[in-house]
Write a sequence for this structure.
């Protein structure tokens, strides 16, 4: 079966380069995982190319170049300026994103955003219809396209329709605030398979359906739930996304990375490196973390000069005002803490705000003595898994927010924190730094085994199995890997 993979963004970066447009592949676990699958199956990936102001012919030729080099096709769903602002910046980034991360006070429930969201689903549907074949699996990704399955079904498409939500699904009291709550749930239930990241997401989804759509019939099996509305059944399951463990672990072991680790170690000799890596987003809890760092340095003076906080933030959604404000608040807070605690030869926080090269990222992951993840809410958080995979010497400690999806799989061997509890986070920083190598190693070993076993290929085969597709290879499992 061929797969038509649909996401809001195509896995490419198109940018002007010395007066000419260039195209390159975007990085990330999903792209790496889907690459071989799409190559082998003559599959196709549909999405918005992310470029505004590029002539259609030029775009076509760039995409054709990229398709040739990758061995699978990608096709663009171009968005008009107004669709970009009202659908992507409005409906996606000012309604669904904050609401599904429990931050309803940040939502702007502008009715026009909903109108444009409907228009864009139609646009994506036309692209699927023009590129899809009758037996294709249509696999739609993430919150931007929750309504696409319904449009396709209404148009009479007979293909199997699958959907995966990368972000959390909120509890009923929060979801209820959405003016189009029933429409969204009904639209989701037109997919044949729905994948969620964690058990709490599944529970929330089921409770929302129960409260808002009481006519839905529910049937539980051992691993999944079947919901039926007006004769159509959907299978809902939990499929926590993983990373390409081997690529990270092998990458971290490369001599070029080892050399960078050596340089970092020299620069921070005698200090523990406490690393955080986040996309610029208010859901990642950066300001809460900074407050806890200030408290830790205040309350535990022996931490000063003993630790260096290395904070890496990748720019994101720079046109949305909330993100611009967040960026300056973070910069102010870092400047304030550094101004207060810096001593000759020691700066407490090193703040990096840019996309970093892969080798550099791997070196930071490998060199860091502690990684701290303070998401206020997160679908999964791949950084937690990437850090563990790169800890090839097994000496690191993972401090992990209990509100990151990753906590369900990794929480047993991490230092779990409530990021809103500044006292607790400050204490966790101290505790992580004080942990001895003898305590660190067994926990990190378990974390690494888990990340290795439940990797992105395992995730893929679990999702495809729910769609009735067997890849013919047994998926790695925790039991087989000896984790549980
Ligand atoms: P994100 O919110 O983007 O993903 P996350 O899962 O942490 O969050 O992934 C971030 C990715 O960006 C990581 O792969 C990381 O390596 C990379 N990255 C971060 N900083 C970088 C930098 N400075 N330079 C280069 N790369 C950097 C959404 C959901 C998550 C869910 C994923 C996958 O919000 O909850 O885990 O999808 O389903």
């Amino acid at each position: 079966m061929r797969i038509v993979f649909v996401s809001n963004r195509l896995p490419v970066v198109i940018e002007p380069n010395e007066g000419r447009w260039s195209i390159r592949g975007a990085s990330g676990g999903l792209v790496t995982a889907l690459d071989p699958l799409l190559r082998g199956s003559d599959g196709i990936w549909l999405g918005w190319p992310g470029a505004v102001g590029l002539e259609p012919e030029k775009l076509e030729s760039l995409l054709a170049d990229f398709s040739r080099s990758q061995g699978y096709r990608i096709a663009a769903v171009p968005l008009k300026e107004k669709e970009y602002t009202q659908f992507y910046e409005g409906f996606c980034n000012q309604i669904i994103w904050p609401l599904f991360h429990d931050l309803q006070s940040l939502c702007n429930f502008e009715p026009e955003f909903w109108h444009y969201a409907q228009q864009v689903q139609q646009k994506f549907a036309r692209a699927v219809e023009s590129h899809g074949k009758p037996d294709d699996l249509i696999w739609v990704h993430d919150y931007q396209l929750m309504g696409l399955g319904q449009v396709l079904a209404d148009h009479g498409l007979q293909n199997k329709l699958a959907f995966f939500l990368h972000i959390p699904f909120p509890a009923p009291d929060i979801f209820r605030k959405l003016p189009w709550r029933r429409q969204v749930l009904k639209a989701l239930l037109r997919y044949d398979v729905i994948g969620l990241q964690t058990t709490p997401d599944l529970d929330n989804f089921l409770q929302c359906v129960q409260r808002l759509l009481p006519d839905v019939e529910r049937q539980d099996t051992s691993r999944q739930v079947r919901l039926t509305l007006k004769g159509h059944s959907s299978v809902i399951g939990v499929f926590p996304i993983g990373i390409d463990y081997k690529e990270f672990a092998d990458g971290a072991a490369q001599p070029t990375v080892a050399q960078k680790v050596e340089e970092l170690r020299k620069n921070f000799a005698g200090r523990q490196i406490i690393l955080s890596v986040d996309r610029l987003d208010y859901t990642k809890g950066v300001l809460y973390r900074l407050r806890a760092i200030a408290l830790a340095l205040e309350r535990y003076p022996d931490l000063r000069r003993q630790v260096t906080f290395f904070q890496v933030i990748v720019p994101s959604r720079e046109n949305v005002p909330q993100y611009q404000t967040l960026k300056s608040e973070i910069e102010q807070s870092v400047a304030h803490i550094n101004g207060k605690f810096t001593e000759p030869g020691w700066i407490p926080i090193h703040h990096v705000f840019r996309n970093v090269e892969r080798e550099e990222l791997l070196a930071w992951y490998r060199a860091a003595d502690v990684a701290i993840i303070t998401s206020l809410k997160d679908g999964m958080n791949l950084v937690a898994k990437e850090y563990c995979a790169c800890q090839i010497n097994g000496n690191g400690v993972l401090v992990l927010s209990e509100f990151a999806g990753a906590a369900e799989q990794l929480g047993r061997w991490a230092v779990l924190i409530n990021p809103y509890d500044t006292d607790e986070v400050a204490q966790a920083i101290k505790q992580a730094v004080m942990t001895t190598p003898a305590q660190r190693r067994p926990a990190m070993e378990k974390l690494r085994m888990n990340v290795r076993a439940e990797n992105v290929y395992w995730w893929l085969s679990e999702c495809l199995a729910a769609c009735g597709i067997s890849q013919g290879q047994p998926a790695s499992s925790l039991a087989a890997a000896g984790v549980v």
